[in-house]
Write a structure and sequence with these properties.
The complex is a heterodimer of chains A (319) and B (276). Chain A is mainly α. Chain A is 77% helix and 0% strand. In chain A, α10 packs parallel to α11. In chain A, 36% of the residues are buried. Chain B has 276 residues and is an all-alpha fold. In chain B, α4 packs across α6 and α7 crosses α8. The longest helix of chain B has 37 residues. The two termini of chain B are 22 Å apart. Chains A and B meet through α1, α2, α6, α7 and α10 of A and α5, α8 and α10 of B.
């Protein structure tokens, strides 16, 4: 039994790794799709032939693509992320620092939004078709329609500028005291929370409602349990698997949504780093950042799969 | 058949606002009070009789910029949606009808693309492609076609095994006939509902790219680009950047309301739970 479970989990992990390798190929190919010369297009039409030749050599374009791919992948596996084109600096340390910042932001956004969304989802089920329930469906419509920067700048405009509670620019630096750091990320974390909250709430509500329609909940009702006991003891444990799934998917979304939000708040994270270097056409940085974002995304999706296998015995016996 | 009275209020509001935006976009050159590129006042002037919504970061009339911005935003989003639908639906329907290795290869490839967040993959590709409107439309359309592919394939697989399709095949009709005359008409209603959602996604995606400085390039501006141009005013308490952002929000909420209604209607027609 336990070994079967282990095998299933191992299978998922292997699948995730295969997927990641395929994604690395895709990202590499994605930066090679331009017909003609990448070096020329990076430098523009007015570049001297000498400059183009130098850049070609620097990018290793004189070698075939598959060799460059394996050099890149080999370097990554040894922890060598290469050098940035724009300033010649090694990419590794820069990314390590920024990834830490991004994860810090995403972690606190998740720490607020997950419990809050579950709590509100439970309340919505308790008062089905009531005021809170209506509010949830309205706010879901709003949050899937609102661009992230609208929410972000609204918060900056009203909370940072009018009320002056927080600063509008989230500067963080290494060795920053914890409380100051928390103060700096308050607004970006709040924006991220607002972006994912409604969706998570709605899914929690749907998962629990789905369970509430089953026979054992009816039995519990007929036994005379209170509404709270029914939700807490019968509905919630059975709804955990879908809820965990939703949480993981939203965390994956957080990691992506963070790109725009870091730019809004000028937060020194991975997203800002990626966007800056896309504009500079710094291909090595873009490849590395792209792969790391994709890796986090795939890992979270994989975890969602694994958690749902663990929490739902029915998934352990695929047909 | 379709009575206006039977359309729910929310959908009516959605349709009205969407039509208003589209009209504003089409007639922008005639209804806007100034030229979209000329500087007509001070930087970030407040709202006044001369400039109903004030001026932007270079002193251009904000209302004019918004109207022209609607033009660019809607134009690019509509073309990208059209591309994603043509590409996604034709590949999805073909995959469902042909099946076999063609279906398998295409579906796994779509899975692969979808395992990378769309925005991230777009950024990766845009780092080497020339930045212009055509590239933008192609990148947005192709990336988004993966979702259309999935939904149209799923719908078509169901239809493909129905008796009338079987009859057409036995009659000796070719694949093209089966796809366009038998399956497409029956797959249309879920696809139309999806169309609205994809259009919203295209608007939000374009706005995000332009906001990051990687979409529409100045001096042209879509709404996302306008947010980027005016965002530095926010810290001085100048809300100019909030207006284009709000325009995006209002448009996408309206289209959403319409799409919701279409979705409910199609499930009604299929005997589903519909509005329950």
């Amino acid at each position: 039994m336990a070994s079967g479970l282990l095998r299933l989990v191992a299978q998922r992990i292997v699948l995730g790794i295969i997927l990641l390798v395929a994604v690395s190929v895709l990202i590499f190919v994605g930066t090679q799709i331009l017909p003609g010369d990448v070096a020329q297009s990076i430098l523009g039409q007015s570049a001297t032939p000498q400059a183009v030749a130098n850049l070609r050599a620097q990018l290793g374009l004189d070698q075939p693509a598959y060799i460059r791919y394996f050099q890149w992948l080999g370097g990554l596996l040894q922890g060598n992320l290469g050098n940035a084109l724009s300033n010649g600096q090694p990419i590794g340390p820069e990314i390590a620092m920024r990834l830490k910042n991004t994860l810090f932001l995403a972690f606190w956004a998740a720490a607020v939004s997950i419990p809050l969304s579950i709590l509100l989802g439970l309340i919505a089920v308790r008062h089905k078709n009531g005021f809170i329930d209506k509010l949830i469906s309205a706010s879901t419509l709003a949050t899937i329609s609102l661009p992230e920067f609208f929410i972000g700048y609204l918060l900056i405009y009203f909370i940072a500028v009018k009320l002056q509670w927080f600063t509008s620019v989230s500067t963080v630096y290494p060795d920053m005291p914890f409380l100051q750091r928390m103060n700096a990320i308050a607004l970006p974390a709040a924006t991220l929370t607002l972006v994912v909250l409604a969706q998570m709430m709605r899914m929690t509500r749907a998962a629990i409602l789905n369970v509430m329609q089953s026979a054992y909940v009816e039995t519990a009702e007929l036994k005379g349990l209170t509404q709270f006991e029914i939700i807490w003891k019968h509905a919630f444990p059975n709804a955990i698997a879908p809820i965990i799934n939703v949480i993981m998917l939203n965390l994956a979304y957080l990691v992506v949504g963070v790109v725009v939000i870091e730019v809004i708040f000028v937060y020194p994270g991975m997203g800002q780093y990626l966007v800056d270097h896309v504009a500079k056409r710094d291909v090595p940085v873009v490849q590395d950042c792209g792969l790391i974002f994709a890796a986090v995304y795939i890992a979270l999706n994989m975890l969602a799969d694994i958690f749902s296998i663990l929490s739902n015995p029915r998934l352990r016996h695929p047909k | 058949m379709l009575k206006i009275r039977r359309i729910p209020l929310s959908a009516l509001i959605g349709i009205a606002i969407t039509v208003l935006f589209v009209l504003a976009a089409i007639f922008a050159p005639w209804i806007s009070p100034y030229s979209d590129t000329s500087v007509v006042g001070d930087v970030w002037e407040p709202m006044s009789a001369a400039h109903w919504l004030g001026t932007d970061n270079l002193g251009r009339d904000l209302l004019t910029r918004l109207l022209y911005g609607a033009r660019i935003t809607l134009f690019i989003a509509a073309l990208a949606t059209a591309l994603s639908f043509t590409l996604g639906a034709s590949l999805g329907l073909t995959a469902a009808v042909i099946g076999g290795w063609f279906d398998e290869v295409l579906s796994r490839f779509v899975d692969l693309i979808m395992s990378i967040p769309t925005l991230i993959f777009a950024l990766v590709v845009l780092s080497v492609l020339p930045v212009n409107t055509v590239t933008l439309i192609i990148v947005m359309g192709v990336l988004d076609s993966t979702r259309v592919y999935r939904i149209s394939r799923a719908v078509a697989v169901d239809i493909n095994v129905m008796d009338f399709v079987e009859a057409a095949k036995l009659r000796g009709e070719g694949r093209i006939w089966v796809i366009f005359r038998e399956i497409l008409p029956n797959a249309l209603s879920p696809l139309v509902a999806e169309l609205g959602l994809r259009f919203i996604f295209a608007i939000l995606f374009l706005s995000a790219l332009s906001f990051l400085g990687l979409g529409v390039q100045p001096p042209m501006s879509d709404w996302g680009g306008m947010v980027k141009e005016n965002k530095d005013g926010i810290v001085f308490g100048i809300p100019a950047a909030l207006l284009p952002a709000a325009a995006i929000a209002i448009l996408s909420i309206s289209v959403n309301l319409v799409a919701d209604w279409v979705l409910n209607r199609t499930t009604d027609l299929k005997g589903g739970r519909g509005n329950a």
